[in-house]
Design goal:
378 residues; 2 helices; 3-stranded antiparallel sheet
């Protein structure tokens, strides 16, 4: 019988111990005899490539050096990336997105979080383990977009405030305020606005926020006022608005900006004359519902309707109900013009009250004609 004597060497794996083996030689002839040899089989040694692969494979998320217990899916703080995988190796990192940049020479890491309102960004970080040869491992992380601080929110809301926040009435410009403004109370997003004024021409109650307009008297100058809006949330921010309060002027309907000097009522023909009209523009209106006639006892009568003055000295052509000629507006009163017209009797104590801050007194009036002199009051 012929035997091949083929030998297979099975060296212990990398990291295992060398193995001692006893080899027995048996010599066969007519009879046999044996002899033993003790040898040591060396364990396998790791190649440079195997070492690099092993070290790279062994890397865990700890190599990312995440701070403050942040998960890798929500990074807000610059990570402290590991620089070695042990056993005299080094790690070189690269990034596929500018949200995390890594200096190729120094290895310095910079976190560039997306701006407020933008989306979070996914970034792939590649760790290259360097020894004699290299091996790589990738980590996917997400960089959180910046969130707005309370101070930033307050500043954003207050910056967005426009003149609309002043709540100006009747189309008045902020340089000629004649009517109490309705100041905004919120800038949105669960905020509140607290207003302050630097001048008594506009006063604001610190507790209720109620606004009071105190126009300068007739003959005085208009007054410039600085209104400060403080937007309150978790923190506050302010914005200032400069306005001008118009001084009172004689014989002016404050809402409709029509100037007149006398109101005459013929109680027999039920004709109302507004005379001395000297200041009006095309499309100006006079709101008679703002006037209430009272006899000073219990009876009150209120005119209805808003009458429009065109820039002509002709009949305004409203079914003959009123006529504007030269400087006088003549109104023919009807049942539709008054809430009540029955028993329209005037006595020396009668007054015409206005809801706009001015007062008309009737005194010593003959029954056929009532001459009404208009006086401005604060």
């Amino acid at each position: 019988m012929v035997r091949t004597g083929a030998v297979t060497l099975n060296r212990p794996a990398v990291g295992q111990s060398d193995v001692e083996v006893t080899l027995t030689a048996t010599v066969n002839d007519v009879v046999t005899a044996t002899k033993q040899f003790i040898v040591t089989v060396k364990a396998q040694t790791e190649t440079a490539a195997q070492k690099a692969e092993r070290l790279a494979t062994a890397l865990t998320d700890e190599a990312l050096g995440l701070q403050n217990g942040e998960p890798k899916s929500a990074i807000e703080t610059t990570p402290q990336l590991a620089t070695t995988a042990g056993e005299d190796s080094t790690i070189v990192w690269t990034s596929n997105n500018a949200a995390i940049t890594i200096d190729s020479e120094t290895g310095a890491v910079t976190l560039n979080r997306p701006a407020v309102g933008q989306s979070d960004v996914e970034v792939t970080l590649t760790a290259t383990v360097n020894g004699v040869v290299t091996a790589t491992k990738q980590f996917t992380v997400k960089v959180k977009a910046r969130t707005e601080t309370a101070a930033q929110k307050a500043e954003r809301l207050v910056t967005a405030l426009t003149d609309e926040a002043l709540g100006l009435q009747n189309g008045e410009p902020k340089t000629a305020i004649e009517t109490t403004p309705q100041l905004a109370t919120t800038a949105g997003e669960a905020s509140t606005i607290v207003w302050t004024s630097n001048n008594a021409a506009i006063t604001i109650d610190s507790e209720t926020g109620a606004v009071t307009l105190n126009r300068p008297a007739v003959g005085q100058s208009d007054v410039e006022v600085t209104l400060t809006a403080t937007v309150n949330g978790v923190v506050t921010a302010t914005k200032q608005f400069t306005v001008k309060v118009k001084a009172l002027s004689s014989y002016t309907d404050k809402t409709n900006q029509i100037t007149f000097s006398k109101v005459t009522l013929d109680s027999q023909t039920q004709t109302l004359l507004i005379s001395g009209i000297t200041n009006y523009e095309t499309g100006s209106t006079f709101d008679f519902s703002k006037l209430i006639y009272s006899n000073g006892v219990t009876d009150e009568y209120q005119l209805k309707g808003i009458y429009k003055l065109e820039l002509t000295l002709e009949d305004v052509n409203e079914a003959g109900e009123y006529f504007f000629g030269y400087d006088t507006l003549t109104i023919k009163l009807t049942d539709d013009d008054f809430i009540e017209i029955i028993n329209l009797d005037f006595y020396n104590t009668d007054i015409i009250k206005a809801l706009l801050g001015w007062n008309v007194n009737l005194s010593n009036n003959p029954a056929a004609e009532v001459n009404v002199n208009v006086d401005i009051i604060n």
